[in-house]
Amino acid sequence: xxxxxRRAAARAGVPLLRAGPGSPGNAxxxxxxxxxxxxxxxxxxxxxxxxxxxxxxxxxxxxxLQKALLAAGSAVMALYDPYRxxxxxxxxxxxxxxxxxxxxxxxxxxxxxxxxxxxxxxICLSTLDMSRLRELPDGSLxxxxxxxxxxxxxxxxxxxxxxxxxxxxxxxxxxxxxxVHDMMHTLLGMPTNMLGEVVVKWFExxxxxxxxxxxxxxxxxxRLSARKLQVLATELVxxxxxxxxxxxxxxxVYYEQRWEQPVESLREEIGIFPPPAVxx
Length: 280
Description:
Number of strands: 0
Structural class: mainly alpha
Mean pLDDT: 85
Radius of gyration: 22 Å
């Protein structure tokens, strides 16, 4: 178990403390020491490690204890620096064991969501025709999505692939959530500054139930000024919560087939209320 924990943490970029040479159970053995000193138990651990199969490309099998350690470490780092997208991604995967199956079930019971699960579309530069989207009319989803990317200097290729979700279908669900995150900014009319990110996290927390979104919504405001906190509390959070409750599941929209649809029309279809007239 210790060997498995060290390997998963190392691959995830999370450092672990190593016990000293005088610790019980030979816990201080380094990876460079002869394997013979590990005895029969070490061979069994190695066999156990080899028995953890990858469920999809990039998958890192982890135990519940490893997930707990990764969740704790990534939560601390994500709260310290909310723009550490790698830590936010690890936190989402290691704490979404209840929310992700619920989201998958919603997709399976919706015609458009079910088709998305079957076809597995991806939103990245290799699948997007950016030139065509730029030529769409102002106000259309495709044109406003590209405008959001360019105005905020972000790329759809920055979304990290899933690693720690121990189910291939659920791994796609969280990948899809990540790739439509910028679509949520577009539909909600929110920029990528801290205030805009907090508002989107409130909406997503209500929509998805992902603990990572809840933590971002709850602790993100600590970095805001008093004026922005007032706007957030009186205008933006109530609107985000009402919209999140009223809206249908955001993962049940095949956005790639809605590029020509006006943003206002799609908001109305999903159930998102018009954004408040405040400066974000």
